[in-house]
Amino acid sequence: MAPVVDPRGRPLRSVLYIPGSKERALEKARDLAADAIIFDLEDAVAAEEKENARAMLAQALAAGGYGSRLKIVRINGFDTRWGRDDAAAFARAAADAILVPKVGTPADLDAVAALVPDLPLWAMMETPAGILNAASIALHPRLQGMVMGTNDLAKDLSARVQPGRAELITGLQLCLLAARSRGLAIVDGVFNAFKDEAGLAVECEQGRNMGFDGKTLIHPAQIETANRVFAPSEAEVDLARRQIAAFDAATSAGQGVAVVDGRIVENLHVATAREVLARAEAIAATAQ
């Protein structure tokens, strides 16, 4: 089973976009229950505010106060006049990673890596080229995670996305396969109707069932639902513990399999069970 937390052991159930140009939002984010924050300098910031946002965000990150939340800065693309300055400004900032927009090939990551020598990179997977090149992008040595940009992908596909997202499933799965083949973190795209809690829960369940580590969010009101859906339930934790105990007992008795609730338990099931418990423990640690 693929990892369910990022490479440094942090949960990624809820990944909230925060505009780098909004001082109040930057302040409020220090007290939110999101597992990670994407500080956005790209889509959420108007052209005339780009440089002010860069300075404001740098000051906010230097001030700290974001606790254990993973701090990711989404810079502007290098095809804009702001991208290279963004990368240079945050190359050694108090962030955990740089998120590169509209990654189409590994060369897009190379260009940023040259200006950001120390921080891990994340890739926005949001273009047809990026989806088709997901496997080669995942091979990049500096890449730590992928973020699905489902709105941009739908736009480029001219897709009319319906509940269930059948129109995007191929793209989502290709990126999941690429990320998991390299042990990378990967989070699902946003759910736009931020007042539709039931709809959000359904889409979170879909993403969790597919294998995503968590979901990107556009509003703080979405955090609780994402945190709940992407966390192991009490029943899942209980089952994991019983599977491990039963398999250990079977092994001690010289048997290679155990039976729990009428189902066979083998090595692979125990590995999954241990990951469920590790995830639950990581989530509990963030709440302390």
Structure notes:
- With 288 residues, the protein is α/β, with parallel strands linked by helices.
- It has 2 domains: 14-229, TIM Barrel (Alpha-Beta Barrel), CATH 3.20.20; 234-286.
- Helix content is 45%, strand content 16%.
- The chain has 12 helices and 10 strands.
- The chain has helices spanning 23-28, 50-63, 83-90, 106-115, 128-132, 134-138, 150-157, 169-181, 197-210, 223-229, 234-252, 267-286; strands at 14-19, 36-40, 70-74, 97-100, 121-125, 143-148, 185-188, 214-217, 258-260, 263-265.
- The strands form 2 sheets. The protein has an 8-stranded parallel β-barrel, surrounded by 4 helices.
- α11 crosses α12 (267-286).
- The longest helix has 20 residues, at 267-286.
- The radius of gyration is 20 Å and the shape is globular.
- It starts with 13 loop residues before the first strand and ends with a helix.
- Residues 1-5 have low confidence and may be disordered.
